[in-house]
Amino acid sequence: MNLIINFTPTGMIPTKEMTPYVPITVSEIIEDVHQAVEAGITMVHLHAREEDSGKPTYKQEVYGKIIEGIRKFSNDLVICVSLSGRGIKEFECRASPLQLGGNLKPDMGSLTLSSLNFNKTESLNSPDMIQMLALEMQKKGIVAELEAFDVGMINYAKYLERKGLLEPPYYFNLLLGNIACAQADLLHSGIMVNDLPELSLWSFGGIGNNQLMMNSIAIASGGGVRVGLEDNIYFDVNRTRLARNIDLINRIHDLATANERMIMKPDELRRALKLNPGNGSYGRNYVSVME
User: Fold this and answer.
1) 94, 146, 174 from 198: Cα distances, Å
2) How far apart are CA 103 and CA 279, in angstroms?
3) 156: number of CA atoms within 13 Å, CB side?
4) Alpha-carbon distance 194 to 202, whole Å?
5) In the chain, at which end, N or C, are there fewer CB atoms within 10 A of the end residue's CB?
6) Domain map of the chain by residue range?
7) How does DSSP assign 203-259, residue by residue?
8) What are 141-200's pLDDT values in tens digits?
């Protein structure tokens, strides 16, 4: 299978004080995505920020402006919006970007499959919250981008499948190297891939210094990559050079060429995930087993 490049330009943590290259404003995020599309990516995982403060926001109107800008130059790029539980507790807030429709409708929404701790903060994802978000996406015809930081989260995805809240084919981000979760090594990554349900596509993401290693392992072993300043702001493991998003994308292309991997185009991922074809038709037409 061709190489999925899941581009994560912003995240919730990087600030302009940490790196001048992180895109914060709507126009900056759109421009970084534009550069990435021209270089070649498959999908984008969006976080939105408040224009004045740069703080993370769940507001659908901000996500809508970003999606509108992206679709002016790419009508088929697979777009995922973040439904993160970092600092946001209310379901209505976390589900806000899912209310966008028409040409602003996202194809996917992130679904972290359990609560977890990061170095300095937590991501709270109660069973009720996860199931409510999964059901809301199902109702809206938006596909869950399944985020798993350890094998237990993969098992929870199978539980959601049994409850009729998730339907194949699936896409998993397998995130390794977080201090409280699966570590970035061959054993942990292999176990996670082995435990995935049938009809699953997957990408490796590496936290911080682990990004390059996990991307390299994924490319060499037939998986996809999650890459961008959300997970790592440095170009080198010694942290002597701050990266731009386009630097990280171009390096993935170099690694793909060395491994004779072709980059998956958005329309190929749309077919693989049974997404609508883009160009005004987004998400997936669900037939819920709960109805």
Assistant:
1) 28, 14, 15
2) 8
3) 21
4) 11
5) C
6) 5-272
7) EEEE-TTHHHHHHHHHHHHT-EEEESTTT--BSSTT--SBPPHHHHHHHHHHHHHHT
8) 999 999 999 999 999 999 999 999 999 999 999 999 999 999 999 999 999 999 999 999
Q: Does the pLDDT value for residue 287 go beyond 60? A: no
Judge contact between 1 and 237, C-beta under 8 A. no
Mean pLDDT (whole number) for 269-281? 97
**pLDDT tens string 3-36:** 999 999 999 999 999 999 999 999 999 999 999 9
d(CA 262, CA 259): 9
Structure tokens at 130: 């996860």
Cα distance between residue 127 and residue 222, in whole Å = 32
Written as six digits, the tokens of 237 are: 């493991």
Rounded CA-CA distance 141/164 in Å is: 14
Q: Which residues on adjacent β-strands are paired with residue 220?
A: none
pLDDT recorded at residue 236 = 96
Residue 215 above 90 pLDDT?
A: yes
Which CATH architecture is the domain 5-272 placed in?
Answer: Alpha-Beta Barrel (3.20)
Angle formed by the axes of helices 245-258 and 210-221, nearest 10°: 30
